[in-house]
Amino acid sequence: MKKLEELLNDVPIAEIIGSDEISVSSLCLDSRKCQPSSVFAAVRGGSSDGHNFIKEAIEKGANAIICEEFPSLLAGGVTYVKVYDTQAAIPKIAKAFFGDPSSRLKLVGVTGTNGKTTTTTLLYCLFKKLGFKVGLISTVKNMVDDKEFSTNNTTPDAITLNELLNDMVQAGCSYCFMEVSSHSVVQHRIDGLKFAGAIFTNITHDHLDYHGSFEEYMKAKQGFLEMLENDAFVLSNLDDENAKVMDRNSKAAKKYFSLKSPADFSAKIVGNGFDGLLLDIGGYRVRTKLIGSFNAYNFLGIYGASVLLDQKRSRVLEILSNLDPVKGRFEHFKSKKGVIGIVDYAHTPDAVENVLKTVRDIKGDRGKVITVIGCGGDRDATKRPIMAEIAAMFSDRLIITSDNPRSEDPVIIIEQMKKGLDNEAEKKTLTIADRREAIREACSLAVPGDIILLAGKGHETYQEIEGAKNHFDDIEELRFLLQLQ
Fold this sequence. Notes:
With 485 residues, the protein is of the alpha/beta class. Helices cover 33% and strands 24% of the residues.
């Protein structure tokens, strides 16, 4: 329990009604989760306004309300704190409530359009094998050392985030590796956190439905790097054309990795196949189970960050060479009849191109590439025709289907994707709205030597349709159907 006044020290306050000396047991953004002595923060969001749930929060036991506008009726015994921006106030309150946990471990954030999950997850696995207790905050799952927690967002809200970091500190973790989304920067979720370092992977077309333009998307990512203090590092992918734009206003020590130019951490791809990459790093030949040039960048980022965190180069490379790829990231297998199945989370134009280029490079002249792809509903619609165009360009057969349509009609999403196809591309394209049937059709078209790529859902074990999440696992579906051949 903490006193409310302790939590408000750094918060700009417009007005307080009631006592700030009351005790606080928990912090809540969801009124349904309030309990006796909770603080409820009323946030105005895109789909709902927390101010509409103040009454419910009080009925559940909340004794303090953080809001931007006082309700017309004030309940007795409740303290109302009017702030100028609730979203900006929450991380300050959470930081104070949980005792500034990010300052008590080494926190490394990974930002960029693609590669965040692979980078954070493999850093977590690497540092575990180096003998440390480690935390992970990612799109797939959150880990407090060996304890796993489910996740709904790439980067959690500020309260959940500080609570997770505090749990890591209490569990004895020395490091935490977390994905930092552009949304989390704009929505103040990471405000006040102390980062030991950051990795910038790349930046390409994504989330324009939320940010409005590529420039605003870049600005959000830059906002994270500009948060870093001068005792931190920022490790950037020098081969991304925006690398030096992204970090130019950061106070952190600037370091770079590259496959094409001299950099602090450089490598050359010597071999690339379905058994993994062979890399030359400073004259040392290193094998990794990761596949494709995009994963060579991920590998370099992981390696570079580990060295910047004072780990021994030789030991880092030894462990990295034995780590398995992350689930749903270029996850592949071969059927008894010789058809190769690949499942990948690629859901941006750049990611789709990277995966398909890798497939074609490894495949050579043997067999054909059959791609099954869709686009998520209630997300950036501008990338839909671009993704279809790229998928058609690098595939011999293309099946456009649904991804997670959410509240949208999958048929309309498919029609929007098809606008990216020219006449030649349309000739080799099928449209099948039912994802299971689309995968079944891909398997029926494949013969020994062919490659089937299921893009977009990766590790996900559900399909979200009209608000309901139904069990659906691309890997499960593909393995089952290929075994029937």
